[in-house]
């Protein structure tokens, strides 16, 4: 559905872990259109003029409640924009544009899908978990640096899905990275193909790169959601362009899709993504 620009009211903006905040917004027009995997472009604003950033910031949906007309995002304070966002309080009004971008193709999930997320990449997977746990035998692998940064564990426990956790320091689940959970599972299957019908992933780039390698090794398909800085959110500034493989190297490309002549083209994450097929993203070394 077409994106809308709305002035929405803040319902919550509170710290839920160290430098990680939950922002809940009353946004009925956006909530009615939003789908798992999409995002909003938010004009941060601040009560302090010294940290009121000029450009909007992209945030993926952490929750979508179309009936109540509410959306939620989770964000980590990492710079001027997110620091300014913490200044806003319940009752304040924010300028929000969305939903933007391509959504996850949940119709391809099959009977046994996998959702795998790492770090802040767990947050955008919440709506997909809620949707797929009702329709399939869903498995979820989540990983983070430590137990306090593992998000959505209460959601997993509430839904009763099959899930496993990983942390870098071993404070929750196995000690290691989340892709180790997946490879360990696939090795035990001892099959020439994966038992997962479809895989949905989101997380830091090294994790997604490893997930892509595992997809080639074990023969599974799916989608990944990229994290990217975006200045405009509508494909005009080209700041979020990424190398994407061309299904047909001789196909035409125009506008923001600059053809390389080498079987790939630049595509804007804001318009053509953030969700891409697991095998089509080119991760530069």
From TrEMBL:
Binding positions (FAD): 57-60, 81-82
Residues the record lists as binding [2Fe-2S] cluster: 232, 237, 240, 270
Name of a matching Pfam family: DHODB_Fe-S_bind
Domain FAD-binding FR-type: 3-106
Residues passing through the membrane, by range: none
UniProt cofactor note: Binds 1 [2Fe-2S] cluster per subunit. Binds 1 FAD per subunit.
Domain of life: Bacteria
UniProt keyword list: 2Fe-2S, Electron transport, FAD, Flavoprotein, Iron, Iron-sulfur, Metal-binding, Pyrimidine biosynthesis, Transport
GO biological process: 'de novo' UMP biosynthetic process
Iron as UniProt keyword: yes
Gene Ontology terms for molecular function: 2 iron, 2 sulfur cluster binding; electron transfer activity; flavin adenine dinucleotide binding; metal ion binding; oxidoreductase activity
Involved pathway(s): Pyrimidine metabolism; UMP biosynthesis via de novo pathway; orotate from (S)-dihydroorotate (NAD(+) route): step 1/1
SUPFAM superfamilies named among the record's database cross-references: Ferredoxin reductase-like, C-terminal NADP-linked domain, Riboflavin synthase domain-like
Quaternary context: Heterotetramer of 2 PyrK and 2 PyrD type B subunits.
Family assignment from sequence similarity: Belongs to the PyrK family.
Function: Responsible for channeling the electrons from the oxidation of dihydroorotate from the FMN redox center in the PyrD type B subunit to the ultimate electron acceptor NAD(+).
Full protein name: Dihydroorotate dehydrogenase B (NAD(+)), electron transfer subunit
Name of the encoding gene: pyrK
């Amino acid at each position: 559905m077409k994106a809308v620009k709305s002035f929405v009211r803040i319902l919550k903006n509170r710290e839920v872990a160290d430098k990680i905040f939950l922002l809940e917004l009353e946004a009925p027009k956006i909530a009615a259109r939003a789908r798992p995997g999409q995002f909003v472009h938010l004009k941060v604003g601040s009560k302090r003029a010294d940290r009121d950033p000029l450009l909007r910031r992209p945030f993926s949906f952490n929750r979508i409640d179309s009936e109540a007309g509410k959306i939620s995002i989770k964000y980590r304070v990492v710079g001027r924009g997110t620091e300014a966002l913490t200044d806003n309080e319940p009752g304040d009004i924010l300028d929000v544009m969305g939903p933007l971008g391509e959504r996850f193709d949940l119709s391809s999930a099959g009977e046994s899908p996998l959702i795998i997320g790492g770090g802040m990449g767990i947050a955008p997977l919440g709506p997909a978990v809620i949707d797929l746990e009702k329709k399939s035998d869903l498995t979820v692998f989540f990983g983070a640096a430590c137990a306090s940064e593992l998000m959505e564990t209460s959601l997993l426990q509430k839904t009763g899905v099959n899930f496993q956790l990983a942390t870098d320091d071993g404070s929750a689940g196995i000690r290691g990275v989340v892709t180790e959970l997946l490879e360990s599972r696939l090795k035990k299957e001892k099959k020439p193909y994966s038992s997962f019908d479809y895989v949905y992933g989101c997380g830091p780039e090294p994790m997604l790169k490893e997930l892509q390698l595992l997809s080639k090794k074990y023969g599974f398909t799916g989608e990944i959601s990229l994290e990217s800085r975006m200045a405009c959110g509508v494909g005009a500034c080209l700041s979020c362009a990424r190398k994407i493989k061309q299904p047909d190297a001789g196909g035409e490309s125009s506008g923001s899709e600059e053809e390389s002549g080498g079987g790939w083209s630049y595509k804007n994450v804001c318009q053509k993504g953030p969700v891409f097929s697991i095998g089509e993203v080119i991760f530069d070394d």
